[in-house]
Design brief:
The chain is built from 8 helices and 6 strands. With 265 residues, it is mainly alpha-helical. The radius of gyration is 22 Å and the shape is elongated.
């Protein structure tokens, strides 16, 4: 079965995700044009640096696309509730549908989401059980790409030798300093913002709590012993293979029972 695309009709969310795409396009176009490709052509940097930059850019935009279009865990209209799990379900007082405990009704999307963490306008989607792993990858690769961009901007200012083969009539070279300053500002803003968000997400996974549960003081009602860190991460990413935690080019499968036991890898 193919991947289901999930789109939220929200003009504010469209504006926010457009801003994120603009930042990505800006740094994926101007930085190679100004720094990477010219200095590579003149032998100042190895080709591996160019490949790694484009790889980080590809992973970042892939995580963004998939996090914004993946179903976060929307509950069906008539869910099948196993008899043995009925005590773990409750009635939503907003949509009058049964839902598993720790689900939440998103007023922006108009439906309940399993283990919803929060609604993120920057991806125009909820962050829930089925796309939380993609949101984490987005935060991580945005930091990597931002740090890479800042390093390139710094080297262009203070480290790289002057280029000998440049067309000063081109737009990028006539406005080189302004373009680099804008890139530096956006890099600092994205790295700082995503860094703090990534930290709160990792802290929530380690304690097995969502952002909504922290804000609503719901922790006392969970009453669950703290799980090992590798188990909570495996549940979020849908696999115990740690290398797969970094790959957005796959499908997530929920882990149950024996799949979480240490001896099964």
């Amino acid at each position: 079965m193919g991947l289901r695309l999930h789109f939220v009709v929200d003009p504010m969310g469209w504006f926010c995700i457009s801003m994120v795409l603009f930042v990505w396009l800006y740094n994926s176009f101007f930085i190679p044009q100004l720094v990477l490709l010219p200095h590579f052509q003149e032998g100042h940097i190895p080709g591996a640096v160019v490949v790694l930059y484009y790889l980080a850019s590809l992973l970042c935009v892939t995580a963004l696309f998939r996090a914004s279009t993946a179903d976060p865990g929307r509950l069906p209209q008539n869910p099948h509730i196993p008899h043995s799990e009925r005590e773990q379900w409750e009635l939503c007082n907003k949509c009058n549908l049964m839902r598993p405990k720790r689900s939440h009704h998103c007023s922006r999307c108009g439906h309940c989401v399993r283990k919803m963490d929060h609604h993120c306008p920057w991806i125009n989607n909820c962050v829930g059980e089925d796309n939380h792993w993609l949101f984490l990858q987005l935060c991580f690769y945005t930091q990597v790409l931002s740090l890479f961009t800042l390093a390139m901007d710094f080297c262009q200012y203070y480290y790289f030798p002057s280029l000998t083969q440049t067309d000063t009539e081109q737009f990028v070279w006539r406005h080189e300093l302004a373009l680099l300053r804008v890139s530096t500002f956006m890099g600092l803003f994205m790295f700082g913002g995503m860094g703090s968000l990534f930290y709160t997400q990792i802290a929530g996974i380690l304690t097995d709590t969502t952002t909504i549960e922290k804000m609503s003081h719901f922790l006392e009602e969970i009453n669950q012993p703290r799980k090992p860190w590798h188990q909570t991460f495996a549940e979020v990413f849908g696999t115990r293979w740690k290398i797969l935690w970094f790959l957005p080019f796959r499908r997530r499968q929920a882990l149950h029972g024996s799949q979480l036991l240490p001896g099964r890898v």
